[in-house]
Write a structure and sequence with these properties.
- The protein is an alpha+beta fold.
- It is 38% helix and 26% strand.
- It has ten helices and ten strands.
- A hairpin with an 8-residue loop joins strand 1 and strand 2.
- Helix 1 runs parallel beside helix 2, helix 2 packs antiparallel against helix 3 and helix 6 runs antiparallel to helix 7.
- It binds L-homoserine (HSE).
- The site of L-homoserine has 12 residues, from helix 5.
- L-homoserine binds next to helix 5.
Length: 297
């Protein structure tokens, strides 16, 4: 028995919703192939050349499957072949894709045994290995599709939201920002006045998404807590944001913990103009970058 999966990239946080909002997009996406083995072992193979660890206990898909085998006392094992198109460390949910793909693949191979919440639960073990935190904001949209709200991760309580008809432009500059470092630098305490602004924006964003109100989505995409700290790690961030908004973007910001940056647009043409803005911003500084034009998936 074998399953093949296409596992999407995801954009976590959606600017103001740190650790609770996330969205699946259709480009880039990983390819995974999984098989049930007669023996209780895990074999992981990458065909992408990123040099990720293949030892099950050190691999994000591997730890998810180890946990599933342990909890279900399985006599079977799994073979997993992963071809990553989502670059590790991009801030586009590369680790989440492998973890979510492993949980979904096991679910399918074992006869549709899990709920979506259970798949999120198991996949979070992969995120914990990758970043030290059990956050589900990339995992949930990977498994549910579209945009999801992680109302709580312990216990897992996911609210699928509507998928607005918007274009997404994302740029991945080739600079390294580790999720664990990007979490470490955040302030642990925030001011009540900042919190009020932030939850106003989150509530506005969720209402805008549910009502397909693009203008409300645009004016809610503001982050007064995380972005001011993290954007310092991303060259050209302010420039790209300003120029994209001038070119007609609805709004946007850091994708997950960075270094990727994303922008929403209503029209394909605007999203392609923004792709050009992003590319030339990095070309001018000699930083290599990859640009993706996509839709909410
Ligand atoms: N919500 C997480 C963060 C996503 O911003 O740290 C990281 O992938």
């Amino acid at each position: 028995k074998k399953v093949t999966l296409k596992v999407p990239a995801t954009i976590a946080n959606l600017v103001c919703g740190f650790d609770i909002l996330g969205m699946a997009i259709n480009e880039p996406a990983d390819d995974m192939e999984m098989r049930l083995l007669e023996t209780p072992e895990i074999i992981i193979r990458h065909t992408d050349g990123f040099g990720l660890p293949e030892e099950p206990a050190e691999n994000v898909a591997g730890v998810v499957l180890l946990k599933i085998m342990e909890r279900l006392k399985l006599k079977h094992g799994f073979e997993v072949i992963i071809h990553k198109n989502i670059k590790p460390g991009s801030g586009l949910g590369s680790s989440a894709a492998s973890a979510a793909g492993a949980a979904l693949g096991a679910h399918l191979l074992l006869g549709n045994i899990f709920t979506r919440e259970e798949m999120v639960y198991y996949a979070m073990f992969g995120e914990e290995l990758a970043s030290g935190a059990r956050h589900a904001d990339n995992i949930a949209p990977c498994i549910y599709g579209g945009i999801t709200l992680v109302k709580s991760s312990e216990p897992v309580d996911i609210i699928p939201l509507n998928a607005p008809d918007l274009w997404v432009t994302a740029v991945h500059p080739q600079v390294e920002v580790k999720t664990s470092d990007a979490r470490e630098i955040l302030r642990k305490n925030i001011l009540l006045k900042d919190a009020i602004q932030q939850w106003g924006n989150i509530a506005g964003l969720v209402a805008g998404i549910q009502n397909n109100d693009h203008a409300l989505i645009g004016r809610s995409l503001n982050d007064v807590i995380i972005e001011p700290v993290r954007s310092i790690l991303i060259p050209k961030f302010d420039h790209i944001k300003r120029e994209s908004l001038e070119a007609g973007a609805l709004g946007g910001g850091i994708s997950g913990s960075g270094p990727s940056v994303f922008m929403f647009s209503e029209e394909e043409e605007t999203s392609r103009t923004i792709a050009g803005i992003m590319k030339s911003a990095y070309d001018s500084t000699g930083i290599e970058s990859l640009v993706y034009v996509s839709k909410v998936n």
